[in-house]
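Query form — protein Pyruvate kinase

QUESTION: What is the three-dimensional structure of this chain?
INPUT:
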Amino acid sequence: MEKISNHKNELIDQLIQLRDEIEDSLFDLSNSHQIDMTDASKQNLCAFLALQRFLNPALDSFLVQEGFSSIQMMSPHVLYSLNKIISHLSPNQRQNDHYIDIEHAVYLKNQRNQELLGKSEEDPISIMVTLDKTMLDTPEIFKDLLRAGMTIARINLARDHSVWKKLVEGIRAAEEELGFETQDRTCKIYMDLPGPKIRVGDLRKIKVPLKINTKKTSAVGYLMSQKSHENPIKDGFVIKINIDEFTNAAAGQIIHFTDAKGRKRFFTILEIVSPACLKVELNKSAILNGETIVELSPDKKSKLTNLLEGPVTIKVKMGDILRIYKSYHYLGKPTMNGEPASIGITLPEALRNVRPKDRVFFDDGNICGVVLEVNDHYLDVEIILTRNNVETIKPDRGVNFPDSLVFLSVPAITKMDITMLAEIIPFVDLIGISFIHHPNDIRILKGYLDQYTERKIGVIAKIETKYALLSLTKIVLEGVNLDLFGVMIARGDLAIEIGYEQLAKAQEGILEICRAAHAPVIWATSILNQMNKTGIPLRAELTDAYTGLRSDCIMINKGPYISNSVKFLQQLDQIKKDPLLEFRNSLLSFVQYDFQ
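ANSWER: The structure tokens for Pyruvate kinase are given below.
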């Protein structure tokens, strides 16, 4: 017994030492980093970080054995809980009552949730839905989402910058029709600033071959002069050629040509619509391009003039080289004349700090490459991994450089962001800083907000890069200075930046740091994606969605069944609030039925 008592006293001493080390750490941080420790959230966040540094796993295990919660559970009120445990184990020890307690931690978090997200403790989970310009074609969807329980409407200015005002008007009109304004149920509007998203640039244009499949579509169409302004067609194809008019043409005449695959084909004239227009029938399926020659007669041959332009196709597979040019407005092209396929990007300045062996990801990680060579004009990337055997490089798809110091040459708040701010301020309730890297990004945005309006607008720090993760504590400490602040776990780009194997651990860390700082968290990217598209969730999606309920808001994206997903999240939230009761009642019902 004496041995056990000595061990207990030793662990109590360790607990006291842990508290004292955390307090000393707070004093040091306050002096060295000029952190205002009178702010309860800042003080507690710093205490939480110090706890991770000084905590002994044996001490945590001892507390659990003694009937206390794990120290890891006390993140919103670290020093208060430590002092409480010490007072229970050793009542004569000194206490400090100036640290945030459980009641005030809960109150502070609820207050911030209410002001930022419009969510009180009694309300269901706050649900953010990404709007899309296609919704403007079926405005009834706005009412469906509001009825289902959407509390925040998200507009991604990088995607819908041309129609954002119409989307806002659609939400407000739907609220008015439903009478939500009189019920104090106004949906908040959240907009992501585009930020420095690096994307594949435009591709070169080529004349797109005209494919006529006589087995699937009509073989009857029109052959027209390049100067013809007639529009006789109701269905079928239209081919214009470089002549002024058809002379000596007659019904039943055969017009020969060789298609793009070298196949002999011909048109039969069915009707002379006008001197500049012939109604014809194609004998077999054909592909016509800019080199196709139509033989009107032995001495009269013409080429097509109305082929449409379309981007070239760039395909890559493992082992291929893809060249990325550093010049602005470079138009991508496929492999030709012994040179590898090449592209430009929307922010060439992002390439300044890219070095050989740095990784490059395209299209949300579907294509992975590694930099082989860098020079003044371009860099060559070897493709080392693809989702499918052959992948297509498409314009406007994202490009990530997780190993390169991109943030040194590309600011998080861009000139386009600043221009857009002035326009969106009257309509927006929350603004997301895309690709935030540093706490100074928050200060920059706050300066512009103060310049444009006196209204309180929430600022959301989107954690989606490796460097944002490394600066997370400083970003949160700066953010809690604002009236309205929250953090979004933007898992799409973040997974690529830090590696898929690190994502689960990273999102847990973000949740804990925000919990310690009493800062609201938005759980984003790929939540119930399959259910949004088909109406039936994947099993793994259920686990992810349920885990996301630990956050304060869940963001879901577009899909034909998006309203069903909103309702489903609310049902999950109700079960989560009393899961044991729900499970016990259903189990008892089953057992009673089984014994009857």
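ADDITIONAL NOTE: The CA atoms of residues 523 and 554 lie 5 Å apart.
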